[in-house]
Specification:
The structure is a single chain. By secondary structure, the protein is an all-alpha fold. Helices cover 70% and strands 1% of the residues. The chain is globular, with a radius of gyration of 27 Å.
Length: 465
């Protein structure tokens, strides 16, 4: 079969997957909005009490902007789960209505909106139709039996288990360094509070699941035959589930894992890896943007309103192209500042803990320089660094959104932190370090053993009766 024919067949397969996925999205959303909602309304009422009691933003663990919960968006998600009595299942699935309550200053108040919806129905319904709201496929059935607090406990258990499964998969197929780097990166990027927010958990589930599937495909030897289709589907699922929180993670974390694993065995030049990144990222973008535009067209057809124009205005606002931008520089500064230690701000002071950390960092750099691996091995570990700029490109492109919501968009930097830690841990040759300091360790063990051995006089004295 010629290369042209193979390309044409693969393009047709990708088109069939795209059309099939859009049809699946419509069917799933319609089915889930067909469910009875007495239990949903009852648990939404309990959830409203919790959310209104905490307020938004809430600070449950650490009083720092990088660890706040977006209760306002969680309230909107739960409000959207309640179907308008007059809407058909299809209309409800496309319209995604919530209550449009506002504060005395004229700002949207989704917490009060949820409380109003469960108390007596919506007085000012608002259609939020330019997103798919695919999270409802899981949220509506869950709300039939669980309230918000119970959903948080479920997320803590499920995301912790899924995160450790991914770490074990990395340990097995990418090595202990990659697994350690991933766990450290999660900690640095404030993932301690992610399971406590429905909005944050959304992309985390998809990121971890996509990474697990990619590892399994690489292990089975099927990835190369389905790599483009895989990233197309992941991009579409991202558009389906996300509310513009941290969508880039579903692209960049699987890509980083792919580069870490393949760079160990495939001796491609850096240019070939870059070409692979561009190709797979392009397919993800086609899936993400294509699915999003499909929802605009669907909403326009079902609701008889031009949601394409409404969505375009939102895109211009999010990117700062409507004249209200705070600027890409400020977006970058705000998001990078979120990675600093809690309570320290953009320029942390050098207290005792920071001084110890700095000293350990200098020691680590000394070890890196003195006991570094061969350059060929370091070069392989450097390959994933190609992904470091991706979050900062996103912050520049979506500058207005990234600046306004830096307290959760900063987590996109997870991929940068992950690959940087991976590179730093890959540079020192720990076997050389152990060999260099083994004489000292042997001397210390011998000295310890000699100190514990009884003297000859002690032995004779024990023999006297």
């Amino acid at each position: 079969m010629s290369a042209l024919k193979r390309t044409a067949l693969r393009a047709l397969r990708a088109l069939a997957i795209f059309v099939g996925m859009i049809a699946l999205f419509i069917v799933l959303m319609t089915l889930v909005y067909s469910l009875p909602q007495d239990g949903i309304i009852a648990n939404a009422g309990k959830s409203a009490a919790v959310l209104c009691g905490e307020g938004s933003p809430a600070r449950p663990i650490i009083d720092d902007l990088a660890y706040v919960l977006d209760n306002a968006t969680d309230a909107l998600m739960i409000d959207t789960a309640i179907r308008e009595p007059s809407d058909s299942a299809l209309t409800a699935a496309v319209a995604n209505v919530h209550e449009g309550a506002v504060t005395s200053e004229g700002r949207a108040d989704t917490l009060q909106g949820l409380a109003d919806t469960v108390a007596g129905g919506r007085q000012a319904p608002v259609r939020y139709a330019y997103y798919w709201h695919g999270y409802q496929v899981a949220l509506r059935p869950a709300l039939m039996i669980l309230d918000y607090t119970q959903l948080r406990y479920l997320n803590v258990l499920a995301l912790t288990a899924l995160g450790w499964i991914v770490a074990l998969g990395l340990q097995r197929d990418a090595g202990g360094i990659a697994a350690t780097a991933f766990v450290f990166a999660l900690a640095v990027c404030g993932y301690a509070v992610v399971p406590m927010a429905l909005q944050y958990a959304n992309m985390t589930y998809l990121m971890l699941a996509a990474t697990l599937v990619l590892i399994a495909m690489l292990r089975a030897g099927t990835f190369q035959h389905m790599n483009l289709e895989f990233f197309l589907v992941v991009g579409m699922l991202t558009s389906f589930f996300d509310l513009l929180t941290t969508p880039l993670l579903t692209l960049c974390i699987p890509l980083a894992v792919l580069l870490i694993i393949t760079s160990k065995s495939v001796k491609h030049p850096l240019r070939a890896h870059l070409a692979e990144i561009v190709k797979l990222a392009a397919m993800w973008c086609v899936g993400y943007a294509g699915a999003w535009v499909s929802k605009w067209v669907l909403a326009s057809a079902v609701l008889h309103r031009d949601y394409v124009a409404i969505a375009v205005k939102q895109v211009l606002f999010r990117t700062g192209m409507d004249g209200r931008s705070v600027g890409p520089v400020e977006a970058l500064v705000r998001n990078v500042a979120r990675l600093t230690p809690p309570g320290q701000g953009a320029w942390p002071s050098l207290g005792a803990a920071e001084s110890v950390g700095l000293a350990l960092g200098i020691l680590a750099v000394a070890l890196l320089v003195r006991y570094r691996r061969p350059r060929t091995e370091i070069a392989r570990a450097f390959v994933p660094m190609l992904l470091v700029p991706a979050p900062y490109v996103w912050f520049v492109v979506a500058s207005n959104h990234s600046a306004i919501h830096s307290w959760f968009t900063y987590r996109i930097q997870l991929v940068s932190v992950f690959v940087v830690i991976y590179l730093l841990l890959s540079i020192p040759d720990m076997d050389r370090v152990r060999r260099a300091y083994s004489p000292l360790l042997v001397w210390r063990r011998a000295a310890s053993a000699e100190a514990q051995e009884p003297s000859p006089m002690e032995g004779r004295s024990h023999g006297i009766k």
